[in-house]
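Chapter review. Work through the record for PQQ-dependent sugar dehydrogenase before attempting the end-of-chapter questions.
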Amino acid sequence: MVPRALTGAGALVVVLVLAGCTGPGDEPAPTVTSARHATAPSSDPTTSAPGPSPTPTPDARPARCTTLPEADEDADVAPGSATVGVEVSTVATDLAVPWGIAPLSDGRVLLTLRDDAGVVLVEPDGTVTPVDGPGADELADVVVHEAESGLLGVTVLAERDDAVDVALYATTADDNRVLRATLSGTTLGDLTPVLTGIPRQWYHSGGGVALGPDGCLWITTGDAGDPDAAQDLDSLGGKILRVTPDGDPAPGNPFAGSPVWSYGHRNVQGIGWSADGRTFAAEFGQDTWDELNVIHPGANYGWPVVEGRGGGGDFVDPVAVWATDDASPSGLAVTDEAVYLAGLRGETLWRVPLRPVGETDADGVGEPQALLTGEHGRLRAVVALGTAGGPGSRSDEDASDDERALLVLTNNRDGRGEPSDGDDRLLRVVVD
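Structure tokens for PQQ-dependent sugar dehydrogenase:
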């Protein structure tokens, strides 16, 4: 077990000295981008007092949120190859610090811009169109960007012929919160709070949102500079949360009346599911070990007592770890053959081959393989396109590659990278 003494006020001092999510020299001094982002207008509907505040979105038709089944040991999972090759093409360029990706079924891709509190649509031909409307105006007014915080994750809740219901993770002057709205064409409707009161800070904000295979909304949070919060079940910080699309605690959650699914996390951003029902999440370490975890309901993942593997006991060990210089994993995607993690400091797309469910979590994965190392700089997000003809395909001729394709965002303009002409980029990565 690796002892950690970073608790309470002392932890804040140490983190500020380290100035980074994963170690020294990786964090710029906090800055507020503009006066309009200094406070949230009191009249804005997204500025309610912190705390869970489920509110239905008019005319929304989300998937039904049901109990998550256990991982199926008998599922037919073909082991992923030990190594693969990749082919990379550029979909879009000159993106301003993109953070989250949500492919749409019509081939467009929705992206969030962290610092600008903006949302853009990328057409199949690479054209980038800003999203406007009342929801976009509200985001510009309410989102506060400082260092790692701002407009972060995005996911699709439901699609109809004429509209898409989306959820967004945003930092405000008071908290981190999840908002939902309906996108019609390039117009975003009014924002409605789904879950508020997630602890905020300019670092360790978490920020992932994803619609799970159970139809529930999963939210990943950070400890917001308070490591003790990760062990406090009354705090939403340092947790993986599971709620209905309206914000109520989801059925089957391990703690009655609570949105908490798992705890003891330092800073989780990427989450995804394998076909056999396992939940995977990527976690930033402090200055020693980054983690890939298999997530179990009610389980404690150790922070701040343990960073990396602690030898079991009261805490669940990760299935893979990396030195923080080699990874800093943000986004995560799961395909039928592997888990992919987008690495920031490591400038690497890490691939962890899947194995059938075994006696231990670690039995269910192979040795990590490094892809794209140093070729495109910092990598923020990754999503899998899934079946042929699915979302995000760029043209008919390459639609057949979609079942092996990923979308990857670079993050070289986030204040820590070394941007080149054309950064940041949305890349299409086809696995061979």
